[in-house]
Design brief:
Largest sheet: 2 strands, antiparallel
Radius of gyration: 16 Å
Distance between the termini: 10 Å
Low-confidence stretches: none
Structural class: mainly alpha
Helix content: over 70%
Number of strands: 2
């Protein structure tokens, strides 16, 4: 049972890290004028748009004119949830 919790914690930790890198890549790509038909750009948008849309709708002050702070807020939220969930699973394992 302990090994299962450790395995789940590591898989979730990896999944959170991968999604955090996807959000960072999306934010970096938004600084340039990307080709909307590029497969990588389309993947980044489709992977992050649902979470960013909900966050923007929940906290509209994150969009201030030309500045969109929702990726930063999403990164902070993901990091906090990652720490809580992964540490909880590791504590269950021990």
């Amino acid at each position: 049972m302990n090994v299962m919790f450790v395995a789940i914690a590591r898989i979730l930790d990896l999944a959170f890290n991968i999604y955090i890198f996807i959000v960072i890549a999306r934010a970096l790509v938004s600084w340039v004028n990307p080709d909307p038909y590029n497969q990588i750009v389309r993947f980044l948008h489709s992977a992050t748009d649902p979470a960013l849309y909900r966050l923007r709708r929940l906290l509209p002050f994150l969009q201030m004119g030309a500045f969109d702070l929702s990726p930063i807020a999403l990164l902070i939220l993901l990091s906090v949830v990652q720490q809580l969930v992964v540490s909880f699973l590791f504590q269950l394992a021990h």
